[in-house]
Structure formats: C-alpha cells, structure tokens
Amino acid sequence: MTGSQTVDLAALERGLRAETDGEVRFDPGSRAAYATDGSNYRQVPLGVVLPRTVEAGAAALGVCARFGAPVLSRGGGTSLGGQCTNEAVVVDWTKYCDRLLSVDPEARTCVVEPGIVLDELNRRLAPHGLRFGPKPSTHSHCSLGGMIGNNSCGASAQAYGKTVDNVRRLDVLTYGGTRFWAGRTDPAEFARITAEGGDQALLYQGLKDVVGRRLAEIRQGYPKIPRRVSGYNLDSLLPENGFDVARALVGSEGTLVTVLRAELELVGVPAAEALLVLGFDDVYAAADAVPVLLEHSRPTQLEAIDGRMAQLMREEHAYLDSLERLPEGDSWLLVQFTGDTTERADEQAYELLRSLGRDEDDPGVALSDDPAREREMLKAREAGLGVTARPPDGSETWEGWEDSAVAPEKLGDYLRDLERLFDRYGYQQASLYGHFGQGCVHTRIPFELREGKGVEAFRAFLFDAADLVASYGGSLSGEHGDGQARGELLPRMFTPALMEAMGEVKALFDPGDRMNPGKVVRPRRVDDDLRLGAAWRPERQRTYFAYSDDGNDFGRAVLRCVGIGNCRTHRGGVMCPSYRATGEEEHSTRGRARLLFEMLGGHADSPVTGGWRSTEVRDALDLCLACKGCRSDCPVGVDMATYKAEFLAHHYRGRPRPPAHYAMGWLPLWARLARTAPGFANAALHAPGLGRAGKLLAGIDPRRDVPLFAAESFQEAWHRSGGAQPDPRDPRTVLLWPDTFTNHFHPHVADAAARVLEDAGFRVAVPYGPVCCGLTWISTGQLATARRVLGRTTRALRPWLEAGTPVIGLEPSCTAVFRADAPDLLAGDQDVVRLAAQTRTFAEHLAGRAPEGWRPPTIGRAATVQTHCHQHAVLGADADRELMRRAGLDAQVLDEGCCGLAGDFGFERGHYDLSQAIAEQGVLPAVRDTAPSALVLADGFSCRTQIDQAGTGRQALHLAEALALALDGPLPADHPEKAVPRPRLRPAPPRRLTAGLAGALTGLAGGGVLAVRARHRIRRDATR
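The structure corresponding to this sequence follows.
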C-alpha cells in the first residue's frame, strides 16, 4: 500500500504545523518540485518539511512516526538511483540546517549539520588549511547529509577514499525515536551501551548478533575493490574494523536512520598540484594502462575521458579550451599529483613518465602545473553527465547503469565486455569515462523509456549488466548508491546469506519499513515508478516558440532538466539567482522544470492540474528573473526564461494580466508617447503623490525610482543633426541599433558608441521611425505582440539586412533577442535569420572587425565590470575583455551573478526585497569596494539602474562611454563617471504639472485602448 493510503494526511499536516519549527508544505507545487531527483524515477511525496533547526527536524520525524508516515531525508536531491524520491514526507535539510558547528584543527575534525553544502564547508575550513577529502562532481551543491547517505566519492577518492572512510561519528535518530552518537565501538564501550539498556542497547546487541552469525560471509562476500558502494556496509561491523556503527550506517540512503549531525575527518589542502594528461588510441587502451600507472605512481586523481565525450563537447561548443590542450589520442587519462611545492608535484609526474618510457615532448603527453588550467581540465571531466545527457543529434541518454565498478586491473576487459553488451541491445555510442584509477565507470545509455518494449529491454539489460559486473567481482555501484535503480539487482552481486543479513539490519532499525521504503532492502522493481515509462502520456502543446533544438516540442525542452542540480550552487556564474536568495527548491531552475513536467499531464497522479492555467507553475515562475543564466550555466541548456515567457503567454491568454505586464511590457509604446513631453512625464512620475499613485496603478514597487526619460531621444538628436545615411552596401557602414532603453533613457550611451565607431573608421547609420526588438513583450509573455513587433522591425531593416550591414547592439538584452529569441519565435523567417547573423555587440565589432591599425583610446584605469546576464548566457564577454585589454583597462570582471533587477523583474511589486537580496550577494558589495579612481562598467541598462539606485555612491557606465571619455583626454581623477551626462529631474510648476499630467494620462489612456485592441486582435492569432 502507498503512504497516502495508510496515513491521515490532513491530521499529519496539522500535527507537523503544530509541533515543528519549520516550513510545512503539503501544497501541490511543493510536492511537484520534490517528485523526482536526478534519476529515472518519480514518486510524488506526501508533503515537504524544511526544519529550521536539527531539533525541529527530529521533532518532525517524531510526528511522522506517530502517524505512521514514511520519511525521506533529502539533501541536494542529485541522487541518480532514485534515493531522493518517495511517497513519503520529505525532510529537506538544506535551507536552514547548514551550520559548521565546530572545527578542531589539531585533530583535523569538524562537526556539521546535514544540510551544509560541500563547497561551503570547504570554504569555511580553508582558513585552517583543511578540507573534506571526497569531492563528487556535484561539490558545488551536494550536501554532507546526502554524501553520507550515498557514501559519495568523486575524483579525489583516489587519494582520500569514500565518504565512509572520512566519517568519525554520526548523531542519528531512528524512526522509533532512539537517538545516539554512533562510531567505533570498542569492547568497553559496547559493554557500557548494553549495560545501560534501552533501544540503543537492543540495536547494538542485534547488530552484534547479525554479524556474529555471518562473520565468514561478510569477510568473503564483499568485493575487495576501491569502489564498492552497493549494499549496507556490514563489513564495518567486523571486529577487525572496530564494530563501527557510524560507518555501517554510511551509504544506507536514509533507510535505517536519519543523520542529524556528523563528525568528519579532514585532510590538508595541498600546496601545489600538477596534471599529467596521457593520450591513447581508445578507451580500452586507456583502461589497460591504469594498473601500470598505479604501479609506478600514487596520484591524487586518475580520471578518464573518451573520444565520444570529447566529440560531444566539440559539438556542444563546451570546454573547447580544455579540449585544445589535450594531447594526441582518442581517449585520455588525467593524472593529478599534489605536493608541498610545485617542484615536488611536477617531479612525481616526471617520474611516472620516465617509468613509462615517455617524456614531455611526446605528442601523446601534456603536463601542466597551472592550477587554473588544471581546474578547467578537470571541470571538463566533471561535466560528463551534462555533456552526455542531451547529445546534439537529438537522442536522449539516461542513467541506470552509470556507476559500475571493478578492480582497476580488470577494467579494460570489463569495458570490452560492457561494450559488447551495449551492442547486443542496440545501445550505440554510449560514452565511457569516469574514475578509472579506482575502476569506476560512468556512462549514460540511450534507453528507450517511453514505450513498453523499450522499458522491457531496459530491465533486461540491467540484469545482464549486473551479472556481468558480478562476474568480474565488481560492484553495481561505485559511488551513486543503489536506491531503486540497483536495489532489485543486489542479489546478483551478494549471496543470499548477505542479503538476509541486510534485511535483518533493516528490520532492527526500521521494522515497519517507514524509512525511505522500497530502496536497497525490499526494493521496488527497477522498472516501477519511472519518470517516463510506458504509461506516460503527456499532451503535446502548441507553442509560440519553435524549440527547434528540441524537435519542436515543448515537452522535450522541459525534459532537458535531468536533475543535476547545478542551479542550486551558491557562488560563481549566474544560475540561479532566485534559488541563491531564497534557498527554495521550487525557485531553482530544476524545481521549475519539475513543475512544468508535471503540468504536461503525463501522469494521472500529478499534483499539478490545470495545464497552462496552473497557479502552482505561475507562482514558481513568478520569482524567475528570466536572466537566462541557466541557458549557459546549466549543463543541459535548460532555458527557463523562454519557458516562462511561453507559459505566461498561454496562462494569460484571453484574460487580464498583472498591471506590470501593461506598464512595463508595453514600455516601448509608453516611451514613445512620453516623447511629446518628457519633462512633464518625469515630473509626474516622481511627484510624491502622483508618482506613488502611478506606481500603484502600474504594479511597480513604491520603493523603486522610475528611470528618467531623456529630454531628447537618440534617434531624434541623430536625425535632427541632418547627416545623410551611409550606403548600406558600403563595407564601412554599421547600423547602430536604437533599443528602447538606450534611445529613450540613456541616449548618451549611443552618442558615445557612435563617436567610438566613427573614430575606428566606420560610418554609422541609425534607423528612422519606431523600431523595437520586442524584449519587454517577450519577458512578460506577450508573444503574439512580440512577433508582430519583430516582423515590423525586420521589414524596416530590410535594406540593411539584404546588404549584410552589421547591426551593432548596445543593450545586451536586446542584442540577445536578435541572436537567440527572435530566430525561435519567428522560425524560418529569412530576415530574422539574417538579423541574427548580422547582429554584433559593440565590443565584438571593434575587437574583431575594426580596421587594421586602429586602437581604442587608452583609459589606463582599474574597472569593476558587471556583465549583463543575457550577455553571459547568449553573447559571451570575450570580446569585451579583449577590447578592455587593448584600452589599458585593468578590469575586474565580477563573477557575482545577477544584479537582481533583471529588466522589469526588480520593478514589479512584490519583487523588490528579493531583487535587493540578490544584488547584495555580491554585485553591490563589489561596487561599494571599488576605488574612487576606478570605473564601474555595466553595459546593461538594468545593471546600471540597480547600481545607481542602490545607494552605492557610484554611477555605472557603458564601455562605450568610457572609451568616448578617453577620446577627449584623461579621465577625472576620481569618480570618472561624473564627466558623463545623465538625465536630470527638473521639477515643474504645480499648475503646469497638473496640465501636463492630464495630457500624459490622456495619451496613456489612448495608448492603453490601442494596446487592448491590439491584444484582442492578437488573441485570434493561431499559435504553432
């Protein structure tokens, strides 16, 4: 029977709310967000609890036990075996229970709470010169509780062992309420525990009995290999291993106890590293070489990349710099050494080369002792799951047999047999890579999990693969654990006696099978509870965007998310700002993708109903900043900004929208109307009473200042000057794009860009009349309008497009529309194809197309640089870095994520606090720390506005403005931005303000009527 059939859910929820200091959620959105992990499996939870303290978490478990509710402790939710999905109450420890409680530098130990993320722990340990040894590829977002539950490893396990080898004690709680610190138990300690009596004594006596009756089976039945993770660690209870109950519980996947605290053993941070890369003809030759390498060296990592993985990276344009540094070969071993000095680390690499009869000049050898370069090389290996999940050929690959392990000396033969098994089932082109130094193989296989025959083949393959690895004396899992993916296969690896012993241990700790039931012991079938499966029947959706990279299928686009969880990182890159500020799964890219998946309606038990009208999906997407950070930072290229726009278009189709969609979504129209009297518009919008009323009507947060309209738009000033438009066919001609933000609010940016472009020898053209990229309509999901706007724009630009004239964008978000959104929104439109190909950023054109001999003016200053999120995700910033280098700028390009304003997001009522919280995580502190003499550069209007309005005392400039200033000579000694003009508010007399406001309101009302009429026309437009 399922958990919901045996539990009074309403009473359970009331009990949890009454007795738990934490967030208790039984709503459909929360349950949908936690319905799956990183695996092939899906089980909708009963509810979710986020305890504010460890004690609150223990209390929540007590309430669940009273109602007989199953419980699942969850960390980062990245498990690949289905350990983190169950029809249970999910306790998510990561939002609040993430403290480092103590550090003992001399003993090299620390005590942590289960929700602390590995990278965060290591950052806090860094001042002591210490770190936790195991480092899975998910180190930026996996929690220590999850690592303990899975017995995680990672590449560094070559030197430091598995998590089980680095745990000293665990503070654990059983389902029955018994709590104790577990660890090594010498005879005196065992006697003390049993003498005290109670439930702990019964557990210890029971464990002693289970082991005592099966000493021989336990000693002989566990594979003697470096990476045995499958099954319970009964071998840790052997007398020679100190009857270590803590280590016996590591890797039990929450099926025996809940871990509340952990005392960990730490290692020193190495002073120096060296990376030796060896090339081989194929992956089998690389595997055959592993025993020889281990015979002659003691590396800290020994990783493998095969030719298929490298090919996928090239096709996906990922890690190209790292690929270029690989030596000759079609598969490679990455061998890392550490030492007290660089020389000592290097010497180990040289010693190995001499032992192999090779040297540094061998074309199949590459050696580096540059830490930054090594990190990039190892990142490429870590990216294997994401790179192989969605190949560019449109195929899908899945976990299921992604983690097997054998003795390193048997690895080559095992891989050959595994490849033959692939061939037998028709699973072609599966990449083979992983931790070859410990015989652990990672792969993703193109299982067909959408139809019955494919699922049957999936099941049959897993049993054959289990028999194969067992025949080599190996392990089903080398680090990812068993869960549901391998639980049913354990009898192929372990003897009946050992399986019986594991069952007895489960019965001791959890006789009612309420702790993560159906995993490891008494497991559900490997082909049950599949996220897809033969019964999965989603409705195909008609959409506005084409999703050309996903077979024109919105559902396939949503399925890009495979649960890796990189969107739950805390630092670096852009993705995902809303998660970083809230700590909420639902407000991560992954959480939103999960809700969209449930919205598709493929499963009868989906908690999300209503399709596009779903309020749960709407609420989850509300805090999505549409920053597009996931488009580049997500290993599988999830583009949540596009999915959000698509959802909003359908959700609000035929019904009223939030006020901000009309106010800011139609900003280009209001900006053109304001041109009749920009001074009055500014005065009205900033008058104390009128401004507040206007913000209320427009859905704008009252704490936000509305940006000032310029006295004259860039287009007006440019064409008023009377200069003739250059010939589009002239190779020196460029078309400077007058985006709404630059044109109406910051025309000085375009003035500066035109000056610099002309200084470089280009002839600048500017379009006549109103043109727009449609960004504001796209971001608010008014996609039919955006299509019409883009269509008008491309018709207006046709002479320039036909001539191949470069289109120079100044605002990154608008430039990104031309390069990414427009081709998918107007798929097949040749003018849009031309526009995408001809659009360049200001820096791209000057750094790559300027006449030979031209150099930018020398600025010779330091600069703090904030890259716009859309530039980071779509356009890239390499050209900007190069142009700044040529201009003599000492640029500190921030890696602090989103500024938090993100177009209309930070203006909209209800978003201000989150917007500021995101900015304060890194961008604003960095700006405040900028020296007075240094520049603050931000090409994005949103970024500049956030910096200007946040009380930093600084005003950010566009790179074009900085270069234009330098054309006039040296910049001011301090706060150089003061030399750049900005719109200023000029108070109007009350009588004139009232008359002007009446006129403005009349114009806005008329424009609103036009907008509503246009909207009703657009409603009749058919979507794809």
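The longest helix spans residues 990-1019.
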